[in-house]
Amino acid sequence: MKIMGLDFGSKRIGVAMSDELFLIAHAFDFIQRRDIKRDLEVIRGLVAEHSISEIVVGLPLNMDGSYGAKSKEVIEFMDNLSKVVSVPVKTWDERLTSVQAERVLIEADMSRAKRRFLSDKVAAQIILQGYLDARKRGQDNA
């Protein structure tokens, strides 16, 4: 069993997966967004293929902790996702994870073209690792 982390974006959905001990998040891939039905089917397939027991979706809160337009879009996506998978779907505060992912890739001396495709799955990895770390401390609520 593994936990899947998702970074929901307007063009791509970054995907990360935990190891089987729920200790380390690994950047896995990204899903090129087309339409919601197809995107959900791809995720459902990944859940089945990789024995996913839980999904954590990054929730983009405003810096003051309030919900914005993007937060509402993510919640709608999660509602739809919950209808097609049989595992719990949770949120995790993703404030600044995209900035963090970009910084990591710049420090790794990645070209702009490579960063564009890697940043989504690295952001998903950062979201999932934060969740896994909090889960170990008994703080798994977002």
Provide the CATH topology. Nucleotidyltransferase, domain 5
The CATH superfamily is identified as YqgF/RNase H-like domain
Instruction: Report strand %.
Output: 15-25%
Major beta sheet summary: 5 strands, mixed
How many whole angstroms does the radius of gyration measure?
Answer: 14 Å
Arithmetic mean of pLDDT: 87
Strand order of the largest sheet: 3-2-1-4-5
Shape: globular
Key phrases:
142 residues, alpha/beta, Nucleotidyltransferase, domain 5, five-stranded mixed sheet, 5 strands, 25% strand
Description:
It is a single chain. The chain is an alpha/beta fold and 142 residues long. Helices cover 46% and strands 25% of the residues. Strands 3-2-1-4-5 form a five-stranded mixed sheet, with helices on both faces. Helix 2 links the parallel strand 4 and strand 5.
Task: Provide a compact summary of the structure.
By secondary structure, the protein is α/β, with parallel strands linked by helices.
